[in-house]
Write a structure and sequence with these properties.
heterodimer, A: about 140 residues, mainly alpha, 6 helices, elongated, B: about 525 residues, alpha+beta, Alpha-D-Glucose-1,6-Bisphosphate, Chain A, domain 4, 3 domains, 6-stranded mixed barrel, 5-stranded antiparallel β-sheet, about 45% helix, transmembrane (chain B), membrane (chain B), transmembrane helix (chain B)
């Protein structure tokens, strides 16, 4: 796919509700960390980030599933599809970890990694399911 | 003999009651069977709804919702903070230039409290100590047979000036006396002591205050904002020395302290309260000065920051849960349609969804709430409750609104009429056929492509015409008219079939039909009247 990956990522992010949800959650988390900066709260919000990531994947399940299906049926290479998924995960994870960059810098890598892992694992799981269940038309 | 009589009567009544019970059971058997059938039918519907909510519960998004709610409730609970109740009152009737501090303790403290307070607030003129206690087991005045439920003691000089009573040794002020003074025996905890009772006016006693809105007699309850004190007939007042002598102790106990003539004019009551409450169990502190009163009590209220955190957490959790629910709405709508086909009423889906949100959100939320309450206390539980209620209500309302069945009242589909029957008076069928053919040919809305007719034995006829609609290319109508004449009446059956090269809209089909049928029906009725 090459350069088209970036175009696809841009379009998917623009169309997805999950990215908007991530942004809204990030704003709320920023407010929460601004008001209450306890260590335990930071840990709990990290867990909340993980749940929010999972929720974002749920929201855009159809969009991601249909995109992956079309790419798969068009003969895209697995590494290209995974690159696409990784980039989508990267954008959403960055959005979710912004509050930590501002208010709890030490925790921002952990927050980013948690969000990225959750996003990528979930999206990759969708890809694996589609790959194992999709029927390839015979020419 | 009388026993035998009662025995017979009892047995007879028992047998009569048994007979009535048996008859009633026989009569009601049929009804109860019917009732069982009805209940079972209704119960099966509820069981069905319960199973559908379980079906929803087993979906993966439920676990995301549960996790979100549990985390949000815990965050809200943990980040709660409470502050002591702080009330400031402006009262222009307070004209005294001196400053007073009143401290009320939950448990009695020792008399060195005054020196402890001096360390906090600096110098003052006077420290008045009070011991006011409500007794669980009443003391008794033997001669006049009266119970005492409340003991009050304080400084001799202060009480004398307050109540106009000269408190000598063993003198106790009491309001429920018929004489000015009398000697009586006070009984308490198996002790008997001779005391001197002095009459004090009950009205005056009730109206006596230690300081600003703090009555001498302890407050029992409140009716609205008005305090209700213990009735004066149960109250015994004396000096601290007399009370110490009564209890045969050398240690003075104090429940209330009034500091008069506080010199510091930069006193922070909240800091004073918090400093003192580190060592003592304080109920409230009052600062009374010119024109204003500040009251700080041990009643804990959630702080503004705490409520803000709870609201932000609620917003975050609501955002996540509503997003997840929005992705589940197509599935829920599909489920709604399916249970509708199964014969469930339209409100069934609302019950299913409400029970689903109750199961998936409210129960885990309540369990977390109990945990928060046990670990962090009431204020934290309040914050968690706020979050739980907001998220649960938002989710329940959102899901129910989104999955609500569409209104049953809608515009019904009216198919174009393709058949029409009209009966008219007619003797000669050929003249009727000529008239109808003329009507077909003279229809200005149609180009007649072909018209054909056949008359059988002057009783039956059939007319067929193919007409093209002039306002639209490639569409028209195929018309067939059957006529049957019997006993001077003609039954005219008109059948139409609208056709089009392209797909014809419903409104156009209706128009073409109407134009054809109305022309013939109207024409034959006019023909009948002129026949």
């Amino acid at each position: 796919m090459g350069i088209y990956v970036l175009t696809l990522v841009k379009k998917l992010i623009a169309r997805s509700v999950g990215a908007k949800t991530c942004l809204a959650v990030a704003v709320n988390l920023a407010l929460l960390l601004l008001v209450s900066n306890s260590l335990f709260i930071a840990f709990l919000t990290l867990a909340l980030i993980s749940v929010a990531s999972l929720a974002s994947v749920f929201i855009d399940f159809k969009l991601h599933a249909s995109t992956i299906y079309v790419l798969y049926m068009c003969g895209s290479k697995p590494k290209d599809i995974r690159l696409l998924l990784l980039l989508i995960s990267f954008v959403n994870s960055t959005l979710l970890s912004i509050p930590y960059v501002i208010f709890l810098d030490a925790y921002s890598p952990i927050a980013f990694l948690i969000a990225l892992t959750t996003f990528f694992t979930s999206l990759n799981h969708i890809y694996i399911r589609i790959r194992s269940s999709a029927s390839i038309p015979q020419i | 003999m009388i026993y035998l009589y009662f025995l017979v009567v009892s047995v007879a009544i028992a047998l009569a009651l048994a007979y009535v019970a048996i008859r009633y059971t026989i009569v009601e058997t049929e009804r109860s069977r019917e009732f069982k059938v009805k209940v079972k039918a209704r119960l099966s519907r509820f069981v069905g709804m319960y199973r559908i909510s379980i079906l929803l519960f087993s979906k993966p998004f439920t676990y995301v919702i549960i996790a979100t709610l549990v985390l949000a409730v815990t965050i809200a609970g943990f980040s709660s903070s409470a502050e002591s109740s702080y009330v400031e009152l402006k009262d222009p009737t307070l004209t005294s230039k001196t400053r007073e501090i009143y401290v009320k303790f939950n448990k009695p403290v020792t008399a060195d409290i005054c020196s402890r307070i001096k360390q906090s607030i600096g110098s003052f003129n006077e420290c008045l100590r009070f011991y006011r206690i409500t007794l669980e087991t009443p003391y008794k005045l033997l001669s006049i047979n009266k119970n005492i439920y409340c003991l009050i003691s304080s400084d001799k000089r202060f009480l004398s000036s307050l109540l106009n009573v000269d408190f000598h040794e063993d003198v106790y002020a009491y309001a429920d006396l018929n004489t000015a003074t009398m000697r009586d025996t006070l009984i308490y905890d198996n002790h008997r002591t001779q005391i001197n009772l002095v009459y004090v006016d009950p009205a005056k006693l009730s109206a006596t205050y230690i300081t600003y809105k703090v009555p001498l007699i302890p407050i029992q309850a409140f009716i609205g904002t008005e305090p209700v004190t213990i009735p004066t007939r149960y109250v015994l007042i004396t000096t601290t020395e007399n009370l110490m002598k009564l209890f045969e102790t050398h240690e003075e106990l104090v429940t209330d302290v009034l500091i008069r003539g506080v010199e510091s004019d930069q006193l922070n009551v909240l800091d004073f309260y918090e400093g003192l409450s580190a060592d003592y169990d304080i109920f409230e502190v009052r600062l009374i000065e010119y024109g204003r009163v500040v009251i700080v009590s041990n009643t804990k209220i959630p702080s503004l920051k705490s409520v803000v955190v709870a609201l932000i957490t609620s917003a975050t959790a609501s955002l996540i849960t509503l997003s997840v629910f929005s992705s589940a709405i197509p599935y829920v709508r599909d489920l709604r349609d399916k249970i509708s086909y199964l014969g469930f009423p339209p409100w069934a889906i609302s019950i299913v969804l409400t029970s689903y949100t109750a199961t998936s959100m409210f129960f885990p939320g309540v369990i977390t709430l109990i945990y928060v309450y046990l670990i962090y206390g009431g204020t934290a539980a309040f914050n968690s409750l706020l979050t739980l209620v907001v998220v649960w209500l938002a989710s329940t309302i959102y899901v129910n609104l989104k999955a609500r069945p569409e209104s049953l009242a809608s515009e019904s589909y009216i198919p174009p009429t393709t058949r029409y029957t009209v009966i008219i008076k007619c003797e000669d069928i050929s003249r009727l056929v000529d008239a109808i053919v003329h009507l077909i040919k003279s229809n200005e809305f149609f180009d007649v492509e072909e018209v054909e007719y056949k008359i059988d034995s002057n009783k039956e006829a059939v007319i067929h015409a193919k007409m093209l609609y002039v306002d639209s290319w490639g569409s028209g109508v195929d018309l067939t008219v059957f006529i049957n004449v019997e006993e001077g009446f003609a039954h005219i059956n008109i059948n139409t079939s609208v056709f089009g090269v392209e797909e014809i809209s419903e409104s156009m089909s209706l128009s073409i039909n109407s134009l054809v049928i109305s022309k013939i029906v109207g024409g034959v009725k006019v023909w009948e009247s002129t026949y």
